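User: Please work through this fold.
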Amino acid sequence: MHHFANHFENLVENYGLLILLPTIFFETFGLPLPGESALVAASVLAAKGTLNIFAVAAVASLAAIAGDNVAYLIGRRYGRAIILAYGSRFGITETKYEAAERATNKYGAYVVVCARFFVLLRQLNGLVAGSANMPWVKFFLANVAGSLLWALFWTTIAYQFGHRVSLLPEALHHVLLMGAVVVTVALVLVLVFGRRALLKRKAMAKKQPGAS
C-alpha cells in the first residue's frame, strides 16, 4: 500500500489534473481506479502550491458529474443484462450490482446524493440508476449535489492537512477518519429520510379507495 501510494503521488505530482480527471471519470464505470486517492493527492499538492485548489475542486466535480451521467446513459441504453455480461471484466459482479440496485430502488435520489461517499455505490451509481429507469432530471440534480459535496469535502479536508503532513499515506490516514464520520452520518440520513418516504407512501396507499 505504501509503495502504491508513493507511486501514485509521483503520478499526480507530475501530471496533476491530467491524472485526476480521467481517474475520477472512469471510476464511475466500475473500473478499479483510486478516485478519492487522486483527489486527496491533488488537494494536498494544491496546499503545497503545486496546483490550484479551486481548479482541483472544479475538475473533480465535473469529472464525477460527467462520468456518472455517461454511466447513466449506458445503463439506460443497454440495461442490466448487458452491463453484467461485460462488466465482470472490470469487477462489476452480479452480487455488487444487486446490492447497489437494492439501495437505489429503495432510497432513490437519497442514494444518488450519498453515493460518492461509498466505494460500491460510487462505482455503480449511474449504471444502476440508468438501468432502473430513474428519471434523468431527478438523477442529474441529485448527482450534481452529491458530486459537489464529495469534491468540496475531500478538497477542503485534504487541503488543510496538506500544510502539515506528507502527501500519502499520512494525509489519507487523517482524511479517511473524517470520511468515516461523514459516511456514517450520510448513511443515517439516507435511512431516516428513506424510512419516512416509505411510511408516507404506505399511508397514502391505505387512504386510496379499495385499499385493504
